[in-house]
Design a protein that fits this description.
Blueprint: E1 5-9, H1 14-25, E2 29-34, H2 37-44, E3 52-56, H3 62-76, E4 82-85, H4 100-128, E5 132-137, H5 150-169, E6 175-182, H6 202-208, H7 216-228, E7 233-236, H8 238-249, H9 251-261
Helix pairs in contact: 1-7, 3-4, 4-5, 8-9
């Protein structure tokens, strides 16, 4: 019998690497996909020899998805049980500060890439159902619109919507659809500037706002729980949990609070 297999985009670092290591530790075969070949090799080194494969993939290219998944299935012994739509990029700052190129790239990777991933994953997940899973990385920014991150928030609301839609659409096929909604996670993305016009990194804005940064290992455990559990949306981090609580029970107070914060996280 073929090994249980997970295919992970954005697998060269951060959340993707942590999830790859977590599933690999449990004996799963791990397909690592990214545009960063050196990073993929680093992730593969954390997994038992012979239990991973590497696939250079730009998630914006629909045909490339078919090639990568077919190669992963061949390497794993013929099946893929979980596809983790994780690849994504940050974009912060006032909406008027974001260039058309930045907006287009963020929409293409964070949203179109997830849609293409779902389309390409479907036949593999249907073949390994029941119990197969499409897992998407959404965000706490998909709970309530984040000032200073309007484009990023829009993509993550979109990922949340895709998860909810496909949860119903694929239910009769025995495919689970889940997402993770992390707040700020300790990954290399925090050290990037929110946009080309900014001279400060995201980490500085997070700390200045008094928000916590959650260890990436917490996301890996959340991914494991999401694939094996019943929750549609899995919140990760104190900020995500507080935001979800406020959005549900204190929407007026939340609106005032985010208004006072302005674009602190994106400038």
């Amino acid at each position: 019998m073929a090994n249980r297999t997970i295919f992970i985009t954005g697998g060269a670092s951060g959340i993707g690497r942590a999830v790859a290591e977590r599933f690999g530790r449990a004996g799963w075969f791990v397909g690592i996909a990214d545009i960063d070949e050196e990073g993929m090799a680093g992730t593969a080194a954390l997994i038992s020899a012979g239990f991973s494969s590497q696939h250079k993939l730009d998630v914006r290219e629909r045909a490339a998805w078919d090639v990568a998944l077919a190669d992963c299935a061949e390497a794993s012994g013929g099946r893929i049980d979980v596809v983790f739509n994780n690849a994504g990029i940050p974009l912060g700052g006032r909406i008027t500060d974001c260039t058309p190129e930045e907006v287009g790239r963020t929409l293409d990777i964070n949203l179109k890439g997830v849609i293409f991933g779902a389309q390409a994953a479907y036949p593999y997940l249907k073949a390994s159902a029941p119990g197969s899973c499409l897992l998407n990385t959404a965000s706490a920014a998909g709970i309530y619109g984040v000032p200073g991150a309007s484009i990023y928030s829009a993509t993550k609301f979109g990922v949340r919507s895709i998860t909810e839609s496909l949860d119903a659409e694929w239910r009769d096929d025995g495919i689970l659809v889940r997402d993770l909604m992390p707040s700020f996670i300790e990954t290399p993305l925090l050290d990037h500037a929110p946009n080309r016009a900014s001279n400060e990194d995201i980490r500085g804005g997070v700390l200045a706002a008094g928000l916590e940064i959650t260890p990436v290992s917490a996301v890996a455990e959340a991914a494991w729980a999401a694939v094996h559990g019943k929750k549609l949306h899995t919140l990760v981090g104190k900020t995500a949990n507080r935001l979800a609580f406020a959005a549900r029970w204190m929407p007026g107070a939340l609106r005032k609070q985010v208004g006072r914060q302005g674009g602190a996280l994106g400038e």
